[in-house]
């Protein structure tokens, strides 16, 4: 579970104090996939980083059960390690036995379609493959909660669509908080979509997505949800 109560954030900018995040209450239940959309600068990433513990909230309380895994906008792979070495890294820090962590890394690399690239260097992978490696590295530690900050934003459209489909499969059963600029992506992936207002960010729409049996880009339920989310984004 992720629970925010009265969370807000203000910081010192060049022109004085800036209120980035207005008072926010949010509960994400175990197993939910919740996406956050909104205009640039609305506080989406700030909220996500507060949940991750990277940023200290100015007020309110944050409760996160377990240790979340974080997937950044761009792959943050270690260039001196192989692809498999990158996936094993978190397990090694936890002192998981060598044979176990190698087997775990192999399993997750196979899941994301990188089994044949285990010994490759990160620079030998395409952007999409590097992002899949980052996702495998996070999932290999088996976090119950995954935080994702626009992980597909820098990818071409075809690679992005492929990874969206893979993420739906890989994230099954996990709690996911996902930041994106793409309304279509948010609706396709999520059980709920949150829309945030321009700064100071606050949640202006919390929309459940009831399209599990017909989750395609052209299905009526998806199109209707996309229209509602877009209207909320453009009206704020």
From TrEMBL:
Cross-referenced Gene3D superfamilies: P-loop containing nucleotide triphosphate hydrolases (3.40.50.300)
Keyword Metal-binding: no
Residue span, ABC transporter domain: 2-225
UniProt feature coiled coil, ranges: none
Pfam short name (any one): ABC_tran
Keywords: ATP-binding, Nucleotide-binding, Transport
MF term (GO), any: ATP hydrolysis activity
Record keyword Transport present: yes
UniProt-listed PANTHER family: ALIPHATIC SULFONATES IMPORT ATP-BINDING PROTEIN SSUB (PTHR42788:SF13), TAURINE IMPORT ATP-BINDING PROTEIN-RELATED (PTHR42788)
Protein name in the entry: ABC transporter ATP-binding protein
